[in-house]
Design goal:
The structure holds two protein chains of two kinds. Chain A has one domain: Roll (Ubiquitin-like (UB roll)). Chain A is built from two helices and five strands. A five-stranded mixed beta sheet of chain A has the order 2-1-5-3-4, covered by helices on one side. Chain A is of the alpha+beta class. Chain B has one domain: Molybdopterin biosynthesis MoaE subunit (Aldehyde Oxidoreductase, domain 3). Chain B is 30% helix and 38% strand. Chain B contains three helices and nine strands; from the N terminus they run βαβββαβββαββ. In chain B, β8 and β9 form a beta hairpin. In chain B, α2 packs antiparallel against α3. The N and C termini of chain B lie far apart (45 Å). Chains A and B meet through α1 of A and β4, α2, α3 and β8 of B.
Amino acid sequence: MNELTIEYFALLREQRGQANECLATTAATPAALYAELQARHGFTLPGDRVRAAINGAFAAADAPLRSGDHVVFIPPVAGG
Amino acid sequence: MFRISPTPLELPALRAPLADARAGALVTFEGWVRDHNEGQAVQSLEYEAYVPLAEAEGERILAEARARFGLLGAVAAHRVGHLALGELAVWVGVTAAHRAAAFDACRYIIDEAKARLPIWKKEHYASGTTAWINCATRSGPG
């Protein structure tokens, strides 16, 4: 089990109804974690449209997750 | 210097660090909140950012532009929060010895910023609805 903190922004924050949570999970990668969270919370964005960041840096969808990691899922961006 | 700002962008403060006797050109870009998008009347915009990563990625973009175009200076800032029509949402300023590099670098920075920074925009429409831009997903027939 990994103990993770997850932070949500924009559409994901609204669909989750909160900005942060702590979670114990067997998900070992951002892709697996997003799939778990999507099933639980009904996120409308498919996994392939969401990027991940781990501990403040962009990370691959199959990067390893470790206990204590801070994970952010990044919906399609629209600055400017 | 790349900053995410929850308060209105102050042009004199953004320009000041660019002063440089070697510079023959300053090119700036201002992104404003406009009153329409894709056929809908827009009343206001909300910007949200993952601040530490947006600032780190913004600094990377500025460093790329400095190296690629031989800039003397590069500064950019992006607002977050609820902005009214006409407000300044994003500002980019670059200096170079000659104008061609400055024009090209300014364009590079704003294009990369829009594509790469973890910043999100929610439009509030005159019809009373809202939408996160680029987050629409197809569902149902059609």
